[in-house]
Amino acid sequence: MNSICAGIVMFNPDIERLRENVLAIAGQVDRVILVDNGSDNISEIKTFLHRTEDSRIQLFQFDENKGIACALNRICTEAADQAYRWVVTLDQDSVCPSHLVREFSKYIPMDDVALICPVIKDRNREGSGKTEPLHGFKEVDRCITSGSMLSLSDWRMIGGFDESMFIDGVDFDLCIRLRKNGKKIIRVYDVELLHELGNIKMRKFLFWDVIVKNHSSFRKFYIARNTIYLARKNKSSMLKARLQIIKQLLICLLYEKDKRNKCREILKGAREGSVCAIT
Known about the structure:
The protein is an alpha/beta fold. The protein has helices at about 15-25, 40-50, 70-80, 100-105, 150-155, 170-180, 215-235, 240-255, 260-275; strands spanning about 5-10, 30-35, 55-60, 85-90, 115-120, 135-140, 150, 185-195, 200-205, 210.
């Protein structure tokens, strides 16, 4: 039986970065499943894949952007149908180290481990952040999907990724449901992944450092929508969720461009998150 494959979600990727990404993981697994979310440059993607002449790489296409959750579920469905037990999920711009699968595989025999993740190093903030241990692992509450290795039996057990969320918070929702079902998420400190978390800028407000993420108005909508949606879904503090919305608005007003449009989308997303059906 096959054990580990990899999957990459794509939407208008930079072809050179995608090439690095695919080649970095292809040497570590038997199969790489690509799901394209309606990219405008799909012809360039196909040309790149044709030139690789690697039959282990499979491409599946959506005619439109159906969201990261839908694409991840497609990857997991294809992997499970091909009898794989684990899948490494990657964003299109995350280039993994050559020992990622080898190191993660050491922790597969551990009881109740459903998700294994690396230490994330943001390309935009290299050298910043908390100091991590050099070796070993630690159980954590949540992680992002990129660079993580997911148990397909546990993915199926909890019903997969929540496609109603589309984007933003999809990974944290999965982590919450895994832990509610008695499963563990571990971070392996021997593996680091360079990842681009957006066009992040650091700003000062009085004595505090403020992270300005500069997301598009489209993303602002889903960040706000899913902040409220997740609080409702998990019966957690609505006050905390609303304070996060206020914080988003203030940062946008103080530091970002296109303030009016972005603030309108934040408020629209918060309203949608308050009334949408919970899945």
